[in-house]
Amino acid sequence: MPDRRGAVGIKDVAERAGVSVGTVSNVLNKPEVVSESRRLQVLAVIEELGYVPNDAARQLKAGISRSVGLIVVDTQNPFYGSLALEAEDAAEERGLGLFVANSHRRHGKEEFYLSQFEQQRVRGILVTPATRDLSRHRMVAGRGTRVVLVDAVDAEDDFCTVAADDVHGGYLAIDHLIRQGRRRITILGGPEHFRQVQRRRAGAERAASEHGGVELDYVEPAEMSILAGRDAAERIADRAGEMPDAIFAMNDLLAVGVLQSLVMTHRLDIPEDMALVGYDDIDFCESAIVPITSVRQPSAEMGRRALDLLEDEILEGDQHQHRSVVLKPELVERESTRRSHLAT
Fold first, then answer.
1. pTM of the model
2. For the chain: N or C, fewer Cβ within 10 A?
3. Whether the Cβ atoms of residue 291 and residue 312 lie closer than 8 Å to each other
4. Sheet harboring 146-150: ordered strands across?
């Protein structure tokens, strides 16, 4: 009964059930047009033969897939994990599947996955861009695969985008530290080509400019990881001269590394000796040995809104106009910035 390759096909089901191929197709795709007795008869044969519908072929014939690709820059960062989980939930509610790829912040790898998803004829691709070069993204979109940029706000008007307001987030962090009496603040950033880093720094500098007597020092680690945070904290602690009285780490992984180094190695009291603010508000911030004040990004909402933008673009077709959604971060205060006696 199966073909020579051993796979059971729709013709095999039709022949065993004594119906047409069209009837089997209706049972699978439009069961409401088939009588109940005939539907049960065909389903029994499908189960008997172990027939698996070729969903990919049906999607190509219909011209639209039920799969969505998501490319993130770092799956080890819980921020992107939260984003992916919410996008997956939103996709599942629509009967779609979400497939996640990790670019490791490498432009070449991001382009590779763009090509792979395009070749698989996915419904669309959600991307957290690793660099400013979006030429491959435009090529893919120009050939008909929708592309939505996530955690990106300064792209040109040829993509839908969703992101948090990083300038406002950087402002919140420094303004909070200043209001806690901190005046010598080290900003622990990241590679300058990261657009999020540039925007957060701009917001931090704006907050400092609104207050007098504030010194900002900027340190650029090679990457934004726990180990990089520990290394940066070691270098800060080994400096000659006056120590900073606060550190603003531009993501929570860096902040966790700083906390580990300063508390465990240098035996500094946080926040009495030094305040610490992170960014993203990953789950670990609340459960750390000293709970970390952090700027909370709406990562879950970003994932859902990105999927919404993709679906809107598909439904609106030629009438679609690209939109940019900017969400507001918020500062979550915890023990890492609450000292008993504020400086004057």
1. 0.76
2. C
3. no
4. 97-102, 67-72, 124-127, 146-150, 160-164, 324-327
